Amino acid sequence: MKYSAKYFSGKINIKWLYSAGVLFLFISAALGIISGSTPLLPGEIAAAFRDGFDSSAGTRIFAYVRLPRTAASLVCGAALAVSGAVIQGVLANRLASPSIIGVNAGAALAVTLCAALGIYGGWQLSLFSFIGAFAAVMLVSFGAKKWGASRGTVILIGVAMNSFLGAVTNTIVTFIPEVGVMSNSFKIGEFSGVTHQKLVPAVIVISVTIVFLLTLHNELDVLTLGEESARSLGMNTAFMRMLFLLFAALLAGSAVSLAGLLSFVGLLVPHAVRRVAGSKSSGLIGLCALYGAGFVCICDTAARTVFSPYEIPVGIIMAFLGAPFFVFILIKGRGGRSRD
Amino acid sequence: MIELINISAGYCKNIVLDYLSAAFEKGRLTAVIGVNGCGKSTLLKAICGILPIFGGDIHIDGMKADDMTRKEIAKKAAYLAQGKSTPDMTVEQLVLHGRFPHLNYPRRYTKCDRDIALSAMERAGVAEFSENPLYTLSGGMRQNAYIAMALAQDTDYILLDEPTTYLDIVHQLKLMKTLRELSDGGKGVVAVMHDLPMAMTFSDKVVILNNRRTEMIDSPEAVYKSGIIEKIFGAEIGLSDDGKSFYYKY
Fold it and tell me: Does residue B95 form part of some domain?
């Protein structure tokens, strides 16, 4: 019983974390909607639902600016955090995340190609960005498997993929300057350009995918036991791996089509959740969704308000807040033990 | 009974087992021995369907393994790999995953699964660590946690690839006693082993692999008397005066 007291993490713990996550999500969403260059009052939000969206300036700001933007930051945060958790599980490497192994870069390339073809929103954009993300992650994962690469080498192949895809994207932007999507803010990631047209498909895809993944957490867990153990438990590992990468690409692709290349969320949130939740892996996906959503939403609110009237891309805020926090949890969490 | 009839198996073009036949019974502890690289691990992987076989037939309790789904095989035979990772999960979580083949999508472990996992942890002696992350356990206890997972899988056969490797002698002996108890309780236990005296002392039956095939399948006493150990391994084995345990003669 030596370790029991120290490492006790019963079911209350996970439930408590879930409750705190829901609370965090609601608070950050409320802050995101209320605060901004024109603060909204609860009365105006109620009016928007009562009298329609176009009844006053306040209700219009709520319906066409704050609501889509807050929703976008929430779903992108959830999508990237969950995508990161899934990719880390499938590749059995905690250093993996959609922005590191080129998944986001694949989506970005596809979004850039779409812009070159005149597609700026809707289902087509979502579809193409998904294809881009999926192609990238499949190349990395199956290339690594075919060449028998180690867990560490997989990440390096991903990093190379990331650079390569970034170079292709930049080439396109260099030769077709009208393709404005690859602007600075797209590279850093931001939500100022979110429209309903872009938002609706992404919200649907991300929500449905996360709900599916919530039902598959045991499968993801078994996959992390390793190829042989998973197969000996009767799992069709090739199929499951493919399915998980497909879901990860759907999430990352949708997030990139909305917000550009938001990095760090997919790495930071799963790590933070694991550190806090301990080894109770059953809640990983749900907790990543909640805390990822809240984290990005808070950061976006800060990006809009802290240097008001100026607005800075959310990616910058995330790096400023996220990087020190990340190092903090790495060192403080569980007495600085680092394990892969 | 698990029967292997003239099976060939290996990796890509590298054939490790060729026309090998063997049988493993329930209620018996069978030790598989052989020099490094002779295909002991390949044999276990072929049985539980992790590695496809090139030819021959595997029958598990009279059913052809080819006709069984991976899940059906997983309900018959549990497999503990040699180099297991230490995933970031609690002991209970790991043991619960032993119930994986018994469930269908969407897999939610029920009260019944939890009860089975708990009794498996009690049998393997890790119940008190159920809430602890695997990495906080010693190597011996971690091995026991994996055994608990195999017990929770509730199979008639348990296949273990070098279960005693990296354990100190106390834990090796404890583990062998656990395996003995399991086989006495009716399970078919197959263990790939490197420690020849230990393998022969604890097992009911010894399978010796050599040159891609089974060189000999017999009781430890018969293996001892045949002198085959010295021929294949270049090591001499002695039998204690009470006739119960084997030892190396250096």
Answer: no
Cβ-Cβ contacts under 8 Å, B78 against chain A: 232
pTM: 0.88
* Closest residue in B to A212 (Cα–Cα): B106
User: Which residues 6+ apart lie within 8 Å of B101 measured at CB?
Assistant: A233, A234, B71, B74, B75, B153
A317, A323, A328, A329: CA torsion to nearest 10 = 90
- Residue A141: is its pLDDT beyond 50? yes
ipTM over cut 0.95: no
The range of the structural domain enclosing residue B20 comes to: 2-83+156-249
- CB of A238 within 8 Å of any CB in chain B? no
Q: Identify the architecture of domain A13-334 in CATH.
A: Orthogonal Bundle (1.10)
CB contact residues (below 8 A), chain B span 23-62, against chain A: 45, 48-50
Identify the CATH number of the domain in which residue B171 sits: 3.40.50.300
Does A225 touch chain B if contact means CB atoms closer than 8 Å? yes
pLDDT in tens, A101-135: 999 999 999 988 988 888 877 788 889 999 999 99
